[in-house]
Amino acid sequence: MIKIEFLPEKEIVLARVEGELDMQAAPGFRETIDAAVDSYRAKRLLLDFKNVTFIDSSGLGAILGRYKKLAQNNGRLVIAGARPQIKRVLELSGVLQIISLFETEARAMQKM
Amino acid sequence: MPKYNRMRLELLSLPENVGIARLAVASFASQLDFTLGDLEEIKVAVSEAVSNAVIHGYGKELGQIVVTGVYEGDRLSISVEDAGRGIADIELARQPSYTTDPERMGLGFVFIESFMDEVKIESEPGRGTKVMMVKQCREHAGREN
């Protein structure tokens, strides 16, 4: 499940993602995020992963797809609040070389 | 008395069954003294192998995936087998970032190999693929995490 919020003062789409991000969830994640970014014409996307309990390469692919889409428009995607096991998969995949990870949503917001 | 147990799960190649497979195997593996971190790694490895079977093994067709788990002592062996299209070049498929789908990262086998102690893949075009993985449960692992 994803709860979307738009923060107009910072032009950030904040997506609070919950549950497991695998091949079953990835298409819904992709569609929901793309629809929000497109409708708000946002260039900044903050993914709050505090309540993400599992991620594999299908989930990572969906994140990377959103990153590429935003980067094409000079936008930015950051992740906040990943649990240790999620962080480990993000690190191993190499996506943290291009996507910043912050400890909390508030910290990410400050840096965006 | 040596610890021994085995499981077998037959699933249709549907995306909603990927989660069932990894949770069933993780639950089975939790009978050994794996750390929570180890169990998470097993879940990722199983998820990748079953996702590969759904996406690459069968594509848009529906087929059967068989997941087995066996442990003997502290050695857990897991296999994920499909009777789908098979892999023409296994070594190429094992390369990081090799993918046939732009929305995936080509990291499936990378995760499997990183998270498991031994990995063997058998595949034949037109006949299917079997991914065999082993994870050793280290002594006293349960107290670390």
Task: Describe this structure as you would to a colleague.
The complex is a heterodimer of chains A (112) and B (145). Chain A has 112 residues and is of the alpha/beta class. In chain A, 43% of the residues lie in helices and 32% in strands. Chain A has 4 helices and 5 strands, in the order E-E-H-E-H-E-H-E-H. Chain A has a 5-stranded mixed beta sheet. In chain A, strand 1 and strand 2 form a beta hairpin. The longest helix of chain A has 16 residues. Chain A is globular. In chain B, strands 1-2-3-5-4 form a 5-stranded antiparallel beta sheet, with helices on one face. With 145 residues, chain B is α+β, with helices and mostly antiparallel strands. The mean pLDDT of chain B is 89. The radius of gyration of chain B is 15 Å and the shape is globular. In chain B, helix 1 runs antiparallel to helix 2 and helix 2 packs antiparallel against helix 4.
* Radius of gyration of chain B (Å): 15 Å
Number of strands of chain B: 5
Low-confidence stretches of chain B: none
> Can you list the strand order of the major beta sheet of chain A?
1-2-3-4-5
Backbone shape of chain B: globular
In DSSP terms (H or I, runs of 4 or more residues), the helix count of chain A works out at 4
- Which strand order does the major sheet of chain B show? 1-2-3-5-4
Structural shape of chain A: globular
**Total strands of chain A:** 5
Q: Classify the helix fraction of chain B into a percent range.
A: 25-40%
How many helical elements of chain B?
A: 4
Helix and strand run of chain B: EHHEEHHEE
> What percentage of amino acids of chain A are in beta strands?
25-35%
Greatest chain-chain contact: A-B, 21 and 26 residues
